[in-house]
Amino acid sequence: MQFLPRASRRSVVAAGAVAALAAGVTAALPAVNAMAATGCQVTYTANSWAGGFTGNVAIKNLGDAVSSWTLKWTFPDSGQKVVQGWSATYSQSGANVTAVSMDYNGALATGASTTIGFNGSWTTANPIPTSFTLNGTVCTGTVTNSPSPSRSTNPSPSASPSKSPSPSPSPSQPTGTTPVAINGQLHVCGVNLCNQYNKPIQLRGMSTHGLQWFANCYNDASLDALANDWNADLLRIAMYVQEQGYETNPTAFTNQVNTLVDKAQARGMYALIDFHTLTPGDPNYNLDRAKTFFAAVSARNAAKNNVIYEIANEPNGVSWAGIKSYAEQVIPVIRANDPDAVVIVGTRGWSSLGVSEGGNASEVINNKVNAQNVMYTFHFYAASHKDNYRAELERAAASLPMFVTEFGTVTYTGGGAFDQSSSTAWLDMLDRLKISYANWTYSDASESSAAFKPGTCAGGQYAGTSVLQDSGLFMRSRIRTADNFPTS
Ligand code: IDC
């Protein structure tokens, strides 16, 4: 089995390839050129399926520093189109694509890299471009074409080394090193969450607080810290429906969620879209809103491979039959647009598998949601929920795909003392069972469940430990260890 160590995940190209390709660029420079030396390396990764693909383009400057750049390439087939891009301004003429840097990523020092990407469509041929120029200089390139085993409609052949115009590190390994670049489109396999290599993985990350209250905590700097300092795999986007949330302005909240999906994608993190129902506890109260919201976000994000849908945060005071009925009406709305996305269904008793309302997991085990590629939610707050909850989750996880979309290291109020010993027992168990999780919250709320000290978000500095409360210190140390995602 091969592993990609997380420690190196932000470097994008195998070292051997860099050396070989840099040598080629130097040789191409005219000997008497008084201008700044130029050179570049591009690593291009395409994840394709029937009719569509996502391209990720890592650009490395091998010449002198530049303050802005223009990257150009030619698709092998003019049926290939950039539909929607990020981190650059795109234009296309026939098969020729031009991507111009943005204000924030134009400056590239010698040896510095930046990554851009786009969703595209294609008609007849595999979307692998053959050459790139950066500010007019031909770049050496590494091209990878990731297989997509979870997409049953994928008609394209998987990567062939012969398609690569230059040395490729290894056709079987993804070149990108972010969680999404390695794992690609996820799917449920048995009771696990599996990656594009059909291997079970665990995602570890953080939940936002309510977007209606803590929007100032979710920006490029805070998400850079989450991706690169915390090494998180996952951002849960908690969009409350009530409490001054979605119901007050559906368009604005939908846009806010989509913006955060893009920011997670740009950093190679999965985005968990949480329809944060809480009070009232019956998700059917919000059924029409859920259909409207999920129709919009699933259409808009269908081509992405980093989106997971959580359709009801914490059902309470409602039967499992009521939750199941809700799920079986909302899931088809998502599937109509995004057929291969994983969907997570809340469980009874504030997503305790029924335990907090005197029940247990058997009601779900014996009466599963009638849909494929579905997981079930379990939530806990470590200072309140201990051995009997752990035992029921472990029992359920033997027959149900479980995802801890939210948990706290404190009491169920979101406050109280940080409980290190119970939190450790919980996370050790989740690690052992490969159950993915998101911690409540990546925010500076004035409560002990928040990772950051109050006032941190106004200050704008998120990386490191000086800004963290006890829960944040603990969660950062748990999340930033190597993932060792299996790739074979
Ligand atoms: C809590 C917040 C708190 C906020 C309250 C409002 O921490 O600041 O005032 O919601 O509803 C959950 C819920 C989650 C709760 C959290 C802590 O999913 O919304 O957040 N919790 O009480 N379930 C169990 C605990």
Provide keyphrases for this structure.
single chain; 488 residues; alpha/beta; Immunoglobulin-like; TIM Barrel; 2 domains; 9-stranded mixed β-sheet; 8-stranded parallel barrel; 22 strands; disordered N terminus; binds ligand IDC
State the domain count: 2
Reported for the largest beta sheet, the result is: 9 strands, mixed
CATH class category name of the largest domain? Alpha Beta
Q: Helical region count?
A: 13
Q: Can you characterise this structure?
A:
The protein folds into 2 domains: 131 residues, Immunoglobulin-like (Sandwich), CATH 2.60.40; 301 residues, TIM Barrel (Alpha-Beta Barrel). Helices cover 26% and strands 24% of the residues. The protein has 13 helices and 22 strands. The strands form 4 sheets. It has a 9-stranded mixed β-sheet with strand order 5-8-3-2-10-9-4-7-6. The radius of gyration is 23 Å and the shape is globular. The chain starts with a strand and ends with a strand. The N terminus is likely disordered. The chain binds ligand IDC. The site of ligand IDC has 15 residues, from strand 19. Ligand IDC binds next to strand 19.
Structure in a nutshell:
The chain is of the alpha/beta class. It has helices at 15-28, 179-183, 211-214, 220-229, 250-266, 287-300, 320-337, 348-351, 362-365, 387-397, 420-433, 456-459, 470-479, and strands at 3-4, 40-49, 52-61, 70-74, 81-86, 89-93, 96-100, 113-121, 132-134, 137-146, 187-189, 192-194, 200-201, 204-207, 234-240, 270-276, 307-310, 343-345, 374-381, 402-408, 437-440, 485-486.
Topology overview:
Elements: E1 3-4, H1 15-28, E2 40-49, E3 52-61, E4 70-74, E5 81-86, E6 89-93, E7 96-100, E8 113-121, E9 132-134, E10 137-146, H2 179-183, E11 187-189, E12 192-194, E13 200-201, E14 204-207, H3 211-214, H4 220-229, E15 234-240, H5 250-266, E16 270-276, H6 287-300, E17 307-310, H7 320-337, E18 343-345, H8 348-351, H9 362-365, E19 374-381, H10 387-397, E20 402-408, H11 420-433, E21 437-440, H12 456-459, H13 470-479, E22 485-486
Parallel strand pairs: 2-10, 14-15, 14-21, 15-16, 16-17, 17-18, 18-19, 19-20, 20-21
Antiparallel strand pairs: 1-22, 2-3, 3-8, 4-7, 4-9, 5-8, 6-7, 9-10, 11-12, 12-13
The chain binds ligand IDC.
Ligand IDC binds next to strand 19.
